[in-house]
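so my prof wants the structure for this chain in the tokens format not the other one, which i didnt know existed until like an hour ago. anyway here's the sequence
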Amino acid sequence: MKAPEYFNETATKYFDFVVEELIKIDRLNTTDKPIIEGLAFNLSTMEECQKILLKEGFVLEGLHGKKEHPAVAISMKAQSKVLESFKILGLDASMRLKIDKNEDQQSDFIAALIG
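here's what i got, hopefully its the right format
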């Protein structure tokens, strides 16, 4: 599976990373490509927002006083979408725990059949 051509270097790096991780746990499906693309884009967006915030700060001086930097809201939305995508793809901690429990139960079942 290959990242879209219009992705920048950071998004492509995240796309390749997610694909590699899904291959490791044998959960890569071609039908998940749009979700993987969205995940890579949002991870890239979060990284860019973090760079901006570290450089410019979380608060800006505005016409009517101080206000939150717009990158804060953008980063939070991207982070929410990342967590959602992790759950869908089975990359979050709770899903990995469920998978591990299922594998343990299957191995116990097989051991009982053999034994």
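also thought this was worth mentioning. Residues 33-56 form the longest helix (24 residues).
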